[in-house]
Design goal:
Length: about 70
């Protein structure tokens, strides 16, 4: 029975790499891709919203947010 237990132990294969063992170009590519998507999906729309909010000037923006209905 002890031979069954020894053979059923799951060992990590030696061909698995840690994330830090990837080549530098792979890490840079993944980082750049992630930052690109964050920029396109979050930062670009946020910039667009603020640009439209201030399109008619700061005075109009302040009047709109200080209005009681707002």
């Amino acid at each position: 029975m002890s031979t069954i237990l020894k053979s059923s132990v799951i060992a990590t294969p030696k061909h698995y790499n840690n994330a830090t063992q990837e080549p530098a170009w792979v890490r840079r590519l993944l980082l750049t891709t992630g930052l690109f998507f964050i920029g396109v999906l979050i930062i670009l729309p946020l910039i667009s919203v603020f640009a439209e909010a201030f399109a008619k000037g700061l005075d109009v923006y302040i009047a709109a947010i200080t209005e009681p209905a707002a």
